[in-house]
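Before relying on records like the one below, remember that each one covers exactly one chain. Contacts with other chains, cofactors or solvent are not represented anywhere in the record.
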Amino acid sequence: MNFLKNISKAPINTETINRIELEKKSRKNIYETICILEKISQKISQRIKENMDKKLEEFSFVNKNNLEEIFENKEQIELSKIYEKLPKATSISIQYLLDGKIKL
């Protein structure tokens, strides 16, 4: 879950960002910046999904060994809530650019 700790600074809600600030940080025009950030956000989204799938595999393995039907798994619900509260991948990629964690 250490990957999730690195994305805590990204805003959860949609925020307006100054276009000129993005251009200064990326040293490219806004269209190139958006295309690159979109590719980065796809990779971030894929990593989040892989991380979540790996965590959920643990629950499916436990349920396969148990023959009785389980209607509610509190740990699985808590895990789902954590992933629902994460910021969107686009917000994370923009925050990485603004923080200087990525160079375009």
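The chain has a mean pLDDT of 81.
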